[in-house]
Amino acid sequence: MTERWKPHVTVAAVIERDRRYLLVEEHTPDGLRLNNPAGHLDPGERPEDGCAREALEETAHHFTPTALVGLYLTHAAATPAQPQGITYLRLAFSGELGTFEAGRALDSGIVRTVWMTLDEVRASAPRHRTPVLLQCVLDHHAGRRYPLDLVYTHPSAVYARR
Which PROSITE patterns has this protein been placed in (predicted)? Predict the structure, then answer.
């Protein structure tokens, strides 16, 4: 029997304020890279809740998703640890930036947050952690917004984490 293909599900916050986008600079195996505040969806978590959690953990800003920007599929190249590579399915959300928790430690690996214009995001593409970062920002800039209920989470998928 062959192994079933299972993409890794990630959630990302596309946060814009005053025509600038909030990104994080983080340590990766490929050096310092830029990304949307993003991470893996945890077991038992609704996608919009995972997005809010990741935004807080990586930026110290509370974030409330209000719309889905898009779904993005990408494949990372094979490595010795992952000889088949990894396919990611990203759910990107826009929303309302909330309060900032001064003094809150950022997630391990996050060096800092940066606010960038669309042109700066474009120019920094060689430093993007994922090739879909720019597409998420471009889709947001183009006004793509879908209702949150486009992604239905059945109650059986939401449970208390152990």
Answer: NUDIX
Global pTM?
0.92
Q: Which pair of tokens denotes residue 122? A: 């474009």
How is 92-144 classified by DSSP, letter by letter? Answer: EEEEEEEEE-TTPPPPTTEEEEEEE-HHHHHHTGGGBSSTTHHHHHHHHHTT-
Nearest to 24 by CA among 96, 130, 95: 130
Handedness of CA 92, 7, 107, 154 (dihedral sign): positive
What the block records as the tokens of 112 is 């800092």
pLDDT at residue 6 in the model: 85
Question: Of 78, 84, 95, which Cα lies nearest the Cα of 145?
Answer: 95
Tell me the C-alpha to C-alpha distance, in Å, between residue 65 and each of 46, 79, 93, 111, 137: 12, 33, 6, 24, 15
Token match 């003094």: residue? 103
CA distance 15 to 18: 10
Question: Residue 48 is inside which H or E element, if any?
Answer: helix 47-59
pLDDT of residue 84: 81
The pLDDT assigned to 118 comes to 98
Overall size of the chain counted in residues:
162
